[in-house]
Structure formats: C-alpha cells, structure tokens
TrEMBL record:
This is O-methyltransferase dimerisation domain-containing protein. GO terms for molecular function: methyltransferase activity; protein dimerization activity. Gene3D superfamilies: Vaccinia Virus protein VP39, Winged helix-like DNA-binding domain superfamily/Winged helix DNA-binding domain. InterPro entries: COMT-like, COMT_dimerisation, SAM-dependent_MTases_sf, WH-like_DNA-bd_sf, WH_DNA-bd_sf. Pfam families: Dimerisation (PF08100). The lineage of its organism: Eukaryota, Viridiplantae, Streptophyta, Embryophyta, Tracheophyta. Residues 17-105 form the O-methyltransferase dimerisation domain.
Length: 180
C-alpha cells in the first residue's frame, strides 16, 4: 500500500469513528439547552466560569462540576462556546459564539425547541429500527411507538407541545429569511 492509499485508509477510519460517535455532539448540545447554559452565559453579558454557570442552573441539587467542565471543553472544540484563560491562573471563562446564540431559549431566532424535539428519546429510538424498516417495510416511529407520530402527539400533551414548539421555531426562522 502506497502513502496515498495509507492516508486514505487512515482518513476513512477517522471518518467512521466520527460518524459512530456523532450522537455525542447531539446529546451534548441537548444537555446545554436543558441546563440553559447559553442563556446563563448570555444573561451575564460576558464570559463566566463554570462555577458561575453552576450557580445559575435552575433546580440544581448536586451538580457534577467535573462533568460540566468536560461538557464545556467539548462545546468549545465544537465552537459553540469560546474559552478564555486568565493570564494569572484563575478559572477558565466561557463566552458566547454565533452558534450558542441559536440555543437561547427566550430568543425569537432559536433552534432550541427543534433540537429538543429531534433529540427526544421517542424520535431517536426510532432510528434503531431503520434496518428492519428497510428489510420489512414500515415507518420507524410507528415500529417503536405503535402509532403514527400525529396520533402519539395527540395522546401525549408534553410531546405535542414539544412538537408544536419545534415547528413554530422553524416557521419563525423561515419567515424571517423570506422577509429578509
């Protein structure tokens, strides 16, 4: 195998690893929205430390700060937040980016509702049946949940609200784009 082939093989392996673990990014961003991390940093108006984030997370009984720091490192690598290291030691501070602004829950231009819908266990679990649906027919959501998404939503008010909020957020974004 020549150097170009070896490089192509190595890149192929890296790509498969990336695809295999890409769900981690989705779950990390979901966690960010659930904990309202972007909202907390935005509320402060400047970069803040992980301890300042922890102090403002609602309903936090016993937060795992080391997990939060790991989460923030991943989100910084994904350019969702910025990282600022003080020159004299001190704690790392995290700031907003163009990406994190799309996660603000109170914003008219937010993708947070769509992200929460798309990462909902009822939808993500459906993807586990795709090979069965390809081989034997059917719709993934129905295979897992026993009914169409519309029927499921009509019987589950919490899921229905999540679905409606997601559709409303995308409609606002599309309408803004059209008007622009």
């Amino acid at each position: 195998m020549g150097p170009k082939e070896a490089e192509a093989e190595l890149q192929a392996q890296a790509d498969i690893w990336k695809y295999m673990l890409s769900y981690v990014d989705s779950m990390a961003v979901k966690c960010t929205v659930e904990l309202r991390i972007a909202d907390i940093i935005n509320m402060h108006g400047c970069p803040i430390t992980s301890l300042q984030i922890v102090a403002d997370i609602p309903d936090a009984l016993s937060l795992n700060v080391s997990y939060l720091k790991r989460l923030m490192r991943l989100l910084v690598r994904r350019k969702i937040f910025t990282e600022h290291h003080p020159s004299e030691g001190g704690d790392t501070k995290y700031g907003m980016t163009h990406l994190s602004r799309w996660l603000l829950q109170g914003s008219q231009m937010s993708l947070a509702p769509m992200l929460l819908k798309e990462t909902h266990p009822r939808l993500t679990t459906s993807w586990h049946t795709i090979s069965h649906c390809i081989k034997g027919g059917g719709i993934c959501f129905e295979k897992i949940n026993g009914r169409e998404i519309w029927d499921f939503a009509s019987e589950n008010p919490e899921f229905n609200k999540l679905f409606i909020d997601a559709m409303a957020c995308t409609a606002r974004i599309m309408m803004n784009t059209i008007l622009s």
